[in-house]
């Protein structure tokens, strides 16, 4: 019987510093890993432990994988110390992934905050692969300061990809040299460039941001079935066996981690 | 239906256990409780007891060890750990109705779905279950409130009912039928009188259970009622009593939660272990950056009830409570799940 707890040998080929606390790890697994945008991996830091991350790279590429990681705990602290050539392990992919089928022919609103743009970047790659399949793709992204914005090198490409694609970043407080929008990412949702009826909104970011993005989306007219949120819970096995990542009746590792808000809105402490 | 006398029954168990290990219940005279024991070999010690009621320990640890190595890294052959040839078969003797029901429930989680937990599945596949009727019950037993029976209905290989001079024995699986067919010499056809004696015993225990639990409501309709009580004050009251020891979940035969963790050995070598875990403990749901969706004890206490009586009903189509009452006996704060659910019933239905 195949052992699903044993990780695939993986080499860290390159490390890109995105922000003072966020790095993108360019990984080469010993065998290709097919994943859908939004599915996640369990990344092993040998001898330290595992932590779940959604790849930030193009889901069309399975030979290599990029994972963008905020330094925030035991495993991620150790990961941030790594140098190119280091060995790590990968298990997965796990979870449902984004509901791409549902988005076809629709106006799609993508709302990210901080390192939350990492899983959304895999979605953006999938959407921009053929933007004509969607009516409109509107990406809103916020970080506290300009130096905390991830993937800055790609913004121009995203904007130029097609006429129906827009990208708008914002920072929380004014900063020298910044001439873009200032304010929390929710302030970008007031005068939306999408027609809400029939559209879907997908969001990923810190729990507190998800909460206020959800409230704002409801306020401007989105209904719970139109909202998908990347939820965070402690995960261990990734396979719906260990019991801990549940949000109500759903296991995020099997049914998520992106959940339709309509399914989980009644759960106590849904935003942590 | 067959009859097997006590001497032949031990012979049968000895044959079944030839290549594996045996777990059986015995009565501890000092405490008056039944305990599950791992046999040290044959002849079986005289203390094994297949009557009575469920043991203090559930049999879940036979399939899901409290702590087990699931991977060693790096390894030339990572699938060696999950090679069925390396797993010893087991015979679980004297599993009660609640015990086999619990195993059936946990099977749904660990075996069904897109993924399977390999070690659990192999241990379950290599487990031979000889279930047994309850001919007694404990004050804390309440299987009848969930519409369940104090005797095994399915989910076993063989089932025995203790009667005068031996046991009535019947098969509940192909493996069980094969064993009975191969050991025809050890058994005889059961007489009508013996079956009648068994049925009378069963009805007597059933009546006692109903009598013992007459002050509590039927719990089969609990999921809907619980959903209405999500913000009730009762959870705060329970949290005042709960001492966060995790005994209720450790002793529960349907609690299956585990945590994977890595232990560093020499150099790059590490071992990945799976360890039972409890949702009642504060670190259970804690994430990186100290985020915790159930940081308060109120939410953790509430979670145990909702996971068993609501979430798993939606996701796995069963109330994950057998009514064995082990959590009642184990609780240092004397929290009785029946009391809690009865109070909710009363509040919701007025």
Structural write-up:
The complex is a heterodimer of chains A (272) and B (350). Chain A is globular and about 50 Å long. Chain A is of the alpha/beta class. Chain A contains seven helices and 15 strands. Chain A has two domains: 8-94, Translation factors (Elongation Factor Tu (Ef-tu), domain 3); 100-230, Rossmann fold (3-Layer(aba) Sandwich), CATH 3.40.50.80. Chain B contains twelve helices and eleven strands. In chain B, the strands form two sheets. Chain B has an eight-stranded mixed sheet, sandwiched between helices. A three-stranded antiparallel sheet of chain B has the order 4-11-10, with no helix packed on it. Chains A and B meet through strand 4, helix 1 and strand 14 of A and strand 4, helix 4, strand 10, strand 11 and helix 10 of B.
Outline the low-pLDDT stretches of chain A: none
Principal-axes geometry of chain B comes out as globular
If strands are numbered along the chain, what order do they take across the biggest sheet of chain B?
A: 3-2-5-6-7-8-1-9
Rounded to an integer in angstroms, the radius of gyration calculated over CA atoms of chain B is: 22 Å
List keywords for this structure.
heterodimer, A: 272 residues, alpha/beta, Elongation Factor Tu (Ef-tu), domain 3, Rossmann fold, 2 domains, 31% strand, globular, B: 350 residues, 35% helix, 19% strand
Secondary-structure map with pairings?
The complex is a heterodimer of chains A (272) and B (350).
Chain A: E1 8-19, E2 22-29, E3 40-45, E4 49-53, E5 65-70, H1 74-80, E6 87-94, H2 100-103, E7 107-113, H3 117-128, E8 136-143, H4 155-160, E9 165-171, E10 181-182, E11 200-204, H5 207-220, E12 227-230, E13 246-247, E14 250-251, H6 252-255, E15 258-260, H7 261-264
Parallel strand pairs in A: 7-8, 7-11, 8-9, 9-10, 11-12
Antiparallel strand pairs in A: 1-2, 1-6, 2-5, 3-4, 3-6, 12-15, 13-14
Chain B: E1 2-5, H1 6-16, E2 21-28, E3 33-38, H2 60-63, E4 67-73, E5 90-95, H3 97-110, H4 118-125, E6 127-132, E7 158-163, E8 166-171, H5 174-182, E9 187-189, H6 192-212, H7 222-227, H8 234-241, H9 247-251, E10 258-264, E11 270-276, H10 297-316, H11 326-330, H12 337-349
Parallel strand pairs in B: 2-5, 5-6, 6-7
Antiparallel strand pairs in B: 1-8, 1-9, 2-3, 4-11, 7-8, 10-11
Helix pairs in contact in B: 8-10
